[in-house]
Every structure is written in structure tokens, then in C-alpha cells.
Amino acid sequence: MQASNRKFVVSVTWLAGAVALLIALVIPLGYFNVALSTLSAETLVAAVAKSEHVGQVINNEPEMWQYQVLRLDDAMAQHSHHPAQERIVIVDLANNVVAQLGPPPLWPVLSRSVELFDSGALIGRLEVSRSLRGVLLQTGAAALLGLVLAALVFLVLRILPLRLLNHAFNALRQEKARAQVTLRSIGDGVITTDPATLIISMNQVAEQLTGWRAEEAKGRPLSVVFRIVDELTERAMESPLKRAMAEKSIMPLTEHMVLVRRDGQLIAIENSAAPIILPSGDVAGGVLIFRNVAAQRGLSQKLSWQASHDELTGLLNRQEFERHLDVALESCRAIGGQHAMCYMDLDQFKIINDTCGHAAGDELLRQVAETLQQQVRESDLLARLGGDEFGVLLLGCTLERAQGIAEDLLAAVRKFRFTWGDQIFTIGVSIGVVALTAETLNREQIMSAADAACYAAKDAGRNRVVVYQPEDSEMRHRLEEMNWTPRIIRAIDEHRLVLYYQEYLPLTSRASPGRHIEVLLRMTDEAGNVIVPGTFIPAAERYNLMPRIDQWVITKVFSEYANLTKSFGSDLSCSINLSGTSLNQDQLHKFIREQAALHQVRPDTICFEITETAAINQLRKASRFIIDMKADGFHFALDDFGIGMSSFAYLRNLAVDFLKIDGSFVMGMANDPINRAMVGAINEIGHVMGLQTIAEHVDSEAALVQLRSIGVDFAQGYLVGMPVPLPLTGMPQPVPGKS
Amino acid sequence: MRSVERTVAIVLILFAVNAWASSGYAQEVRIGGTGAGLASMKLLANAYVKIHPGSAIKILPSLGSSGGIKAVAAGAIQLAVSSRELTDAERKQGLAAVEFGRTPFVFAVSTDNKVDDITLQQLADIYSGKTMQWPDGSRIRLVLRPASDADSTMARSMSPEMAHAMRLAEERPGMLYAVTDQDAQKSIEEIPGAFGVTSLAQIMAEQRQLKALALNGVRPTPQNLANGSYPYVRVMFLVTSPKTTVAAQRFAEFVQSPEGREILGRTGYWMR
User: Fold this and answer.
1) Does A71 touch chain B (CB under 8 A)?
2) pLDDT tens digit string along A115-172?
3) What is the ipTM of this complex?
4) CB-closest option in B32, B67, B76 to A70
5) Closest partner residue to A67 among B70, B146, B177, by Cβ?
6) Cβ–Cβ contacts within 10 Å for residue A667, how many?
7) I need a labelling partner for A513 at 20 to 30 A (CA). Which of A371, A553, B85, B206 fits?
8) Do A71 and B179 touch (CB under 8 A)?
């Protein structure tokens, strides 16, 4: 490289010198040539012109012309632009000077002469001489200029290209060094080849991965050094570099590729290839980049397993199970296959989990999973669906066969003993079995049916197998309830829960002052039709949606309370229903308190209604809740009192403020003395306990009259007022209350 | 006897002819030189021939003073008329110059021109180009002589202003030049509004339709030359060489004779 550089420099110097020399010579020589030619021509022209005039003198005085000094002077002076710079001499044939004009010119001299004639006879000549000194001086100046120009040209031609070249070489060297350092530093293997895929260079990582040293690999075909096979098929693969160069585009990462090292060792790799394309569009070679992905591939496989399996039990998880379910359903529809599914819910798992702790619960689940796995066929897919719920997809299985397998599973679980510490536990399992047929709509339908069957098994006493029967009304009802769940969730998300209210009518003077209303929940369907609570509340309660709904109601009423007081007056008292499942929420008290503080709602203006049944079912929790809430100033009412077969003694444990007499007693009291007596008894006891009483479902004047006479404090019902939409923001105003 | 007598007669005739020829009157005398004196020479030659019939005098066209001197030195002519002194180099050639008269150096216009008098300043203005018109509004057309001519030299010597004005005149483009005295007089005579230098003797000898202007009020006459009131003079010389013939010498003597001086006096010369 150095030698070629020097040679280049010498060549450039010679070239520059030659050009400069040419310029240095051409300019003065060219100028001199032109100037000399011009001067010669001018001198000749002057001589010719003067000779014309002299000729006239000769013709006029042929014998004495040579003595016509003045006329000759005048003739010689003609056509003289610079008379001081030329000399004109007229000589005869003997070369004697006849006349002359002008000073002798400075050396060197240019002379041009013309012959003089006397009627055709040569008698002498006229010579005009001019000095060449001016031309020479100007030529000298031109030579100087030429030298200067030549020097400049030499400099430009010699220095500038070399400087530019030097600069380019330096930049190239830097880039090369940078590229080499980069290649050494990057963690990927890099192999560069020529267009024929013969290796030009390899970096260190490439050496390590291939097992070839760069010097050995240089010049060899890529396919010899970089041998790859498909991970799955183990077939030899062609490197994408050839294709990249052929198509002049970058080939992206290739998966499932394994590099066969020189020593035969296999390494999982990912590689990409790119062509090196010159500005002319030609391919100058290619670059192959590859890396060892053995660890990542193992990790991704692991992640892939983890994404589809339950970590605790090693079984398929719900997501993967549902995916297989979809595939199975598709096969039913496509080829008419028949499959079945079992939905299993462990019995008594909660007891063991609560008793022995979550570690025991986890171990129990693991062991149960193993037990279940032993009972299913190889083609069956066992999954943990969540909690203590399992599912089995029985592929290519009739319903009868599935039922048989389910019975086996049941027997295995019954036989299963769980030892934890020094305790031994038995558990049961409720199994719902459902068939997958071509008529099955979708996965949700199957899951719901299987769940319904499982629930039926639980309802029937647990620890049994129930096959889903579409014609079974109970099962259909369960299914319908299950179908409500997503509808309710959608209604909440799409703001289709609506609040109504029904006002109480105070009947006695002991009834607390102000206006009292009960907030009632409604739902609208997608078409805007109102759905009464009786339709969706049971499903919401069963599927644990009530806490969310109750919180929504509380938030809505509290946030609108200021507007409600504007509509109803500042002495408004709102009753809000709380479900039993909400009572079970530990955070309910905190939630209500926070909402009241947030929206500046006075606790004494809010009355929570809890059904007698819900309170009794969770007596301890309900009692604690009521005490804590009343301490904040909230009021409580015991709703639907009298139908729960509970004794009045429970009332002592529930520090409620109002007793709502169940409507079933009120509606018939006009004609039924027993109902009337019941109402009277409840009212009496309520009053004795310091509670105010409210009669529900008052639908006739007769009942109202009797309620007044009995002394019930409030009446609520269609007679008093129909449930109407609560005047929330943007909603219509309520009608004034009746008294 | 008759043949002898014939022969003697022939011999005697031949001897007489030869003697006559040798007497100097029969030789042709060629005279050339400045045009200013050639007309006067013609008059003198006519008078000489009347006195000496058989003499042959040829007055050549103007050669100029230098041309005439050169010709006489070469023997091409026998007598040269010059309006300048000989140079040392010319004297070294054996040439000799004798003054035969003086005539005023004049500024002349055509007789049509109303102007009679001119001042030195006006002269300078005319030559410098400051004044371009005659009083009657007509154009002044200067007839210049070559810068080396004696007339030009004389004009330049009149004053520093004239010297400067002459230089300006010579630098002005398109000026009219007359090489010889005859050309100059012809131009002044014929060109409307022309104005130039010449001599009184030439005007009178050639009987030109020209008039010499008074200069600063002094008329250019031989009398005013004699009394010094008119200072501008052209001195005329006859130049001879060692080759000058007897006949030429005789003519030269005639020029200086009373007859000759009388003719010269009539044609504008003043003889000292």
C-alpha cells in the first residue's frame, strides 16, 4: 500500500510538472509568436503603404525624386502610428541611402522592405524597421505570468489531489479500524463473503461458533464453514446469504436453525443475511450475522410451556384448555367428531385450605392432579381451570364413555387420601359431563353447560357425576343464570344500570321527619328496555357480582346526593340495598366511609337495607358491620322481615333502625286476619325495640287504612308511589311526595 | 583648293562653337531648391537669357531647401536655392551658400478674405484651434507645413505661445498639410477660408491671388524688413558646390548684379 502510494505521488508530481511546464512554455511562446506575426504584418503593411506614397513621388519626379526630401519625408511619414518607434529608409539599387526617417530602432530589429519602381523598373527599396524589444519585453512579462500560472497549476495539481486522496485514505483507514474493532466487540458472529460466497473475513465470535479460524476459513465456500441444519427436521439448510445476494435484499432472522460446528457440535442459532451493494447496483458480496440462541430458545420454550400450563400442578391451564376446546369444537363441526368434557369441582377443598393453610391446599391440588392424570387416557387433555376446579377434554369420546371416565375419576378422588402433618383428609369431587357435538355453538356454551351440570352435582349432594341434560329445567335455569353474568358485566361497563326510587309515606307522628326514599336498581338491555332486578339479581348474587353492583349504587347515589337534596329537600333520607355477598366484603365499611367523605354525604341521611335472610346467614359479620357503620352515623333497615323463619331474638343482635315488614304480609292483610295479626305483631315488637316500621307492597287503600290503625310508621308500595327513575344529573324531576 | 577651304571652315566653325560652348553660356544650368525662391529664379533666368541668348537655365520644380542642397551636392543640379543656412556637414561637402536677398515671412490669405491684419495672439488662437472662424463667420482652414519645414520652424520661433499653438495644431487630427511652398500657396489660394505661411517674394513672383496679412499692424514689406519693424524674415541663399559649372557661376553672379537685384527688389526682396 505504501509503495503504491509513493508511486502514485510520483506519478501525480510528474503529471503536475508536465502540465506546469507546458503552461510556462506555451504562454510566452504563444504570445511571442502572435506578437511577432502581428508586428511583422503591421510593418509590412506600413512598408507597402509608404512605398505607395514614395512611388507617387517617384512617378511625379522620376529624375529628381531622390532629392524631393520633403515629399519623401511626407511619404515616409504616412501610415506611421508610432513614428518614434520605426525607422524608414529608402535606398537605391546600390544600397545608398536616399532618404530616411525616424530614429534607429532598438535591438533586436524587425525589418520589412518593399521594392520601389520607376515605371516598372526597379530603382530601389523602402525598408521599415521596428524594434522587437517591446515584443520581447512583453513576451518576458508573459513568460513571467506563465511561470506564475504554471507554479499555481503545479501546486493545485500536485497538492490538492494528494491532499484529498490522503484525506480519503485516512478516513478509510479509520473506518476500517472502527469496523474491525466493532466486529471484534459485537457479540454476534459476522462472516463476510464475496459474490461467490467465498469467505473474506470472520470475526472472533464467528470463529468460536463455527470452530474455524479466520485464516483457515478465508477463501473457502461459506457452506463448508457455516453448516446449518433445521432443528426440527435435521435436514441441511442453505444459508440465506445466497438468496440475500440474489434478491439484493436483507433476509431476516431464520428460526429453528442449528449450526454444525467443525467438531460436530450442534449450536442453536439465529441468523440474518444482507448483501453488500455498490452504488452502481452490483453486489460486492454479503454479510452473514448469527448468534448462539441455545439459552434463549430454551427459555422461550420454557416460557411457552409456562404460558400454557399451570405451574402448580403441571397440567394445562385454562387458556390452553379452552384453546383445545375450540379445536375440538371445530373438528366436530368440520368432520362431525364427537368429544366430551368433564368439569370437576373438588368438594371440601376449602375446608382443608382454610384449616391447614395454603401450602396444604397447594399440595393437595398437586396430588389430586396426579391422581386425575392417572385416570385419563393419553389422548385426553387434563387441565386445572382455576382454584379447585379441573377440566378434562375427552377427544373422540361418546357421552356414555365420558360418563364412565367421569365415574372413574370420581372413584379415584374418593379413594384419595391427603396426609398433612398428622392429619389425613378425604375429599370428594362434583363432576359435570357434557358432550361436544356439531350443534354446540361455542366454547362458552360448553363451559356453561359443564358448569351447570357440575353445579347440579353439588346441589344434588356433591361427590357425584351429573351429565348435562338440556331438557332439565333446573339445569336450564342454572344455565340461564350463568348467561346473565356476562350480560350484567356488560351492563355495568356500558352504563346500563339505572336507579329508580320509591318514596315512603309517613303514617304516624313518630315517623322520622323528612322525605324517605328507597333506591331501586334496574338494568336496561341493549335495546333500552328495562329489566327488573328479579331477573338478574339472583345471577349477580350467585356469581358474586353484587359487591360490584352495590358499590356502583353507593357511588352513584353519594356522588349525586347534593343534586338529590335539591330535588327532594335537605331533609332527604336515602335507603340503599346491600346484598349478603357485599356484607362479606371486608373492605365495604371503608369503601362506604370514603365515598361519604368524598361526596360530603351526612351518614345520618343514609339508610342501608339488608334482607333478614342475608343478615341471618352471616349474622356475626352483619352484626359487626352494622355496629361499625352505625358508629359512623349511618342507619340500617332489616328488609323483608318476617319471611326468613328467623326468630325475633336475632333482632337483638342486629342494631337496625327500621324494620321493613315483608310485603307478603301486607298485601293480604286487608282480607287475611292472620296477615293483619302478623303485621301488627311485627310492628309491636319493632316499636318495643325502638325501631320504626315500614310496610312494603302497600297496594290498596284498605291496607293503608289498616296500617294506619295498627300504627305502622311508613307505607311503601304502588298505592303510595310507583318506582320512578331517580332524578340524577340529566334525569327528570320526581313528583312531590304524598302524605 | 575648295576642299581645303571647306575643311578649314568647318574646323573654324567647330572651334568657334566649341569656344562658344566653352565660354560658359551654352551649358545648361539646372537650378532647384526651395519653392519660395524658384519663381524669383525664373524671373532672373528669363532676364539672363535675354542678356545672354543661347544660355540654358532650367528651373526645376520645388525640391525644398534640403533637397536642393542635396541635389547640388550630388551634382544633379548646379545651383540650389535655399531658405536656410548650410549645416556643418553640408559645408564639409564643399558647399557654399551666398545670401541673395531677404523677404518677409508672411501669413497669407486669399485676396477674397476681408481680413488684412492679424495679431500674434490671434495667430496663436488660430493654430491652437481656439479660433475657428473668420470675423465674417466663415471657417478658418489652416494650411500647415511639415514640422521639419523651415516655415514651421520660423512660426514656432515667433513666440512661446506660437510654439505651443503649433504643437497643438500638429496634434489636431485631419489638418491640411502642404509639403512644398507651391502646394502651400496653391492651397491658400484655392481653399475657401485657407490660411497659412509663405513668403512675400513667392506671392509676388508667382503672382498669386494671395495677400500677406499685416502682423500686429505692421505690413510685411521689404521696407519694414529694412527698418526692422517687421521682424519675420526669410533669408534666401544660393548654394553652390565644387561641381557647380561656370555657367551656373555666371548666373549666380547675375543674381547679385544690379540687374538681378532690381528684379529681386521688384518681387518682394530686400537686399542688404
Assistant:
1) yes
2) 988 877 788 999 999 999 999 999 999 999 999 999 999 988 888 877 887 888 888 8
3) 0.70
4) B67
5) B70
6) 19
7) A553
8) yes
